[in-house]
Every structure is written in structure tokens, then in C-alpha cells.
Amino acid sequence: MSTSNHFLEWSIAELSQSIKARTISPVEVTAASLGIIAQKDKELNSFITVLEEQSLNAAKKAEQEIINGNYKGHLHGIPIGLKDLIYTKGIKTTFGSEIYQDFVPDYDAEIVTQLENAGAIMIGKLNMHGFAYGTTGDRSFFGPVKNPYDPSKITGGSSSGAAAAVAAFLCYGAIGSDTGGSIRMPASCCGIVGMKPTFGLVSKYGAIPLCQTLDHLGPMTRTVADNAIMLNVLAGHDKKDIYSVCSVKEDYTQAIDVGIKGKKIGIPSSFYFDIIHPEVQRIFDLTVEKLKQLGAEIEYIDLPGMNDLLAAQQILLASEAYTSLEKLLREVPDQIEEEVRGRAIVGMFIQASEYINMLKIKHKAINMHYEVLSKVNVIMTPTLCTLPTDIGQREIDINGTKEHTRILARLTGPSNTTGFPAISVSGGMSKSGLPVGIQFIGKPFDEGQLYRFAFALEQSNL
Length: 462
Fold this sequence. Notes:
about 450 residues; eleven-stranded mixed β-sheet; two-stranded antiparallel sheet; 13 strands
């Protein structure tokens, strides 16, 4: 057995080898994780519910299974957190809201069943921007989540607690949701890896919806390989989810380290760099040079109509979010946080004709992205156009122009509309000591290739 808790900073890939070899016990790992949560999370506020008794019992069960020779794979005995919009039977699921503060589902989300079948330990439910409707992560009924790199800064939303907990070594991975960038934005702010998979690849059954045609669930981890390990468990068709799609089962860790020599990276010539903080631009430019040195070919590409696509994402989101929250807005509006309520009400005034026109823009953009990605392997952009802002801040100055913090979703939202997969991986640190994310976008069901590019960048930063 280990004599210290240094294993809390190990990757899933590393820890799983020791658990399999029985040199570290799942009980030891879970107890240490609970200990660090108790020690650190009073400041970070990343958890809403810590499942102390349940997780220790699950860890004892995992330990006995492994002793009996029934090792289930890389997640067996590994503590994982869940964003608190994912149903957990008999356990509070709050949506980060006053209304749901005592809501207890009577069934598990499909994603919970998948993780439990893989032997993962559910260690707690993670704080989030109320109703998953915000870019900052500081509007939860349970208080703002604080950035592990600087507690005065946001973690990004809406999967705020997931990003902070993973970055601060409170759990080894987490499940987030992404409607306009809510996995990738906090991944960028907290220096971790966040994958928004192809729309329909991961079941959403049992996850409280915000915008059903844009919502995605996906893994958030400290390393690229760990992210691929988690997606191996999560990906698959689920007949209970009407948006779930049939896909070929694959091992996303396979050939993750083959390199990117000769591969083509498309860099947009506009939109993604029209509004950008100098530090984000600096780190992006350094990333381009690193990937050139690894043998990648850089091509500058034209992505016409991106402002229209961003507008389509915002209108589709507003329309469907209003539909999701309509009953609550009518019956208990005062119990919906003011900023979230204001955004949700906007959807009430969007006409059907406008919604239909946005669908036309969406499908035109899907075809355009297919065409571009037939010529390059991936598209690379910054994840965010600026650095993490102060908690409570709502106006940003970017190169002398005042912008609302909703601009944080500018570079991530388009991929929710197309449904194409996109991953955020750390590109480096700003001069002020804050993480900056790099985003790779690929063709549908090309997550394996995105992992190879993200892995190459991650290794070049070590």
C-alpha cells in the first residue's frame, strides 16, 4: 500500500495500473480524495453534494471485485464527479438552482449506469452555473465556484465545479455538459482537457435539458489519454435517448501517440481572431510553431458565415431554453436567479419563422464544415477569446472594446450548432498565471483524431 497521498496527482492511466496490480486500494484512493475535498473545497466550492458513505462503500465493493479477479478496466476504483444536472437515484440533483435544491431523482442517468458498470466511484455532485445557462460559473444558488489558479477568477461555465474539482485534484475526472461551450470554456479556464463529443455519441438520458438540440455530455480530465479512457466508457447508442446515434465502437486511446507529422491543421482566417486578448493570441501563435515543429502542415482556411452561425446558436439556445424553463418561469420566476431568468425570458419573444431560418443557417454551416474538413484533418482555434475574468464581472475590455462576458462562448458555440466534436486542451499559461486553452474541431465521429492532436500538443508542453 502507498504511504502518502501523492497518487492524487496521478492520471487515471497511471493510477489504474496500480489499482489493477493491487499496490493501491480503491478504498485508499477514495478516502484520500474525500480528505482533499474536505480540506480544499471550502474555498473552491466545486461540490454541492459529497457522497462520502456511498463512495466508500462503492470503493470497498471495487476492491473486493479486483481481489476476486474481476477487474473491469481503467475506471475501476477511480473517483469521478458528476455535474449536478445528471440524475442520480436517491441522491440530490440540484441543477445549481433554488428550485431543485432538494430534488431527488428516482432513477439514474444512463451515463451514471455506464460509469458504475465500469467500476468508477461516484464521489459527488458538482456545482454549476444555475440551470446550465451561463458562461462564467458564478451564478449558482450554492455560490460561485473559484478558479484553483486564482480564487478571485471564474472557472468558466456552466460546468464550473467539474473543471475546478479536476484541476485541483479533488477527483480524477468528471462529467460535464456543453450547450454553448460549457465543457470547453471551464476546461480552458482551469487548464484541463474537455471533450464535447459528436452530437448523439454520448447518451443524455437522465440529464436535465437546457436546449435539447445543442446539449452534449462529455468527459473532463487532467490529461488527454484520461479523457479518451472516459469516452471509451461513455460512447454508445442508447435507445432511451431520442437524439442518440448508432456509431462504430472504438478505442479512443488506440494510436493516440502516433504523432501528427504530415497532418493538416486548418486555421480560420477570420472570426476566431476578430476579437481576441493579446495573451490568448500570443499563446495560440506559440502553439502553431510547436505543432509545425512536430511536422504538422498549417493551412489558412476560410469559414464564411460564422457570425450568422453564432447568431443561430444563440437564437436556437434562447428558444429551447425558454421551452425547457417555461413552466418554472410562469410558476416560480422569483426562484430563478435574476441573470438566468433574464436570459431565459428572451426566448419567449422569438418567432417560429426566426427559429426555422436559424435551422437553415445551421445546416448550411454543417455542409460548409464538412467541405473544409475534407481538405484538412482538424480546425484549430483558441478556446476562449480572453482570459478568465473576475468573479461577478460582466464587462470585459478586449483591445479597447467593451464586451459582455457572454462573449466567452463566442468561439465554442458554433460547434454545438453543427454538432461536430471539439476538444479543449491547455496551450500554456498567460503572463498573469492563468491557463489558456486551444480548441481542435473535427469531423463527426473523428474524436480519435482530435485526441491525437490534443495529445501531441499536451506532450509538447511537458
